[in-house]
User: Which sequence fits this backbone?
């Protein structure tokens, strides 16, 4: 049975259901087992469809109310509103293609993103009911997808002071060894390198804390630090529970993280 692991907020947040789908029963010979909802990483299309159907049944929504983008490690953000649902299938696909964050204020619509080590960011403003899901790999994190998502929510009417943010399982700093070109990408965008990067004393290799980089970026957009929660669980350290590209390779499943407001 599909398990939805509920995400934690730094303070109670009624009306919003934020979760990530755990792998389920893992077949060691199948890097897509058991529950993979991502349809562009090489998995069997029918398996992906069945996983999406099971999630929709669990959430009590129709298939067309499960919205996820085709991510490209960029900073494009899509808004899901009635105009999206009024559009034909091709237009909907165009809206979601090349998108790394989704925002909506609609009831009964589950928005989410797929990750396998990248940071999965969920945000909500309980005053305006505006919510967002953002995917932040190192390219997106360096390019400030987190603060750009906060800014997009603000343009819709959310207030940074009211926004709550939570992050699920993603790669930890110890596991995230990177080349200096990655460090330079963060430096070019004026991230606080001293706060997010350290070097291994033995290898001299850089290690970046992606979750902390995203948290600082969210805070820089006006969200109080006390409103930001980091789960702290590492996907690479727990590949039996979460998909990890660094453990399984890029041709593997992705962990779906979503949010829905039922009422």
Assistant:
């Amino acid at each position: 049975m599909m398990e939805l692991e509920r995400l934690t907020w730094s303070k109670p947040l009624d009306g919003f259901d934020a979760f990530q789908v755990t792998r389920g029963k893992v077949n060691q010979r199948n890097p897509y087992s058991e529950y993979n909802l991502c349809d562009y990483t090489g998995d069997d299309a029918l398996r992906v469809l069945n996983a999406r159907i099971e999630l929709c049944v669990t959430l009590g929504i129709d298939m067309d109310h499960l919205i996820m983008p085709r991510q490209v490690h960029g900073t494009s953000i899509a808004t899901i509103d009635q105009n999206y649902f009024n559009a034909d299938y091709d237009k909907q696909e165009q809206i979601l293609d090349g998108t790394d964050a989704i925002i909506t204020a609609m009831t009964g619509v589950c928005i989410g993103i797929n990750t396998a080590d990248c940071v999965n960011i969920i945000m909500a403003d309980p005053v305006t009911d505006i919510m967002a899901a953002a995917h932040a790999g190192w390219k997106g994190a360096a390019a400030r997808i987190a603060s750009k998502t906060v800014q997009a929510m603000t343009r819709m009417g959310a207030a940074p002071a009211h926004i709550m943010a939570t992050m699920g399982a993603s790669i930890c700093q110890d596991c995230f060894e990177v080349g200096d070109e990655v460090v330079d990408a963060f430096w070019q965008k004026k991230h606080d390198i001293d706060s997010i990067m350290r070097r291994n004393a033995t290898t001299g290799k850089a290690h970046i804390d992606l979750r902390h980089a995203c948290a600082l970026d969210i805070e820089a957009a006006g969200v109080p630090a006390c409103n930001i929660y980091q789960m702290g669980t590492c996907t690479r350290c727990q590949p039996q529970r979460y998909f990890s590209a660094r453990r399984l390779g890029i041709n593997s499943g992705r962990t779906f993280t979503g949010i829905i407001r039922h009422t």
About this structure: The CA atoms of residues 103 and 258 lie 11 Å apart.
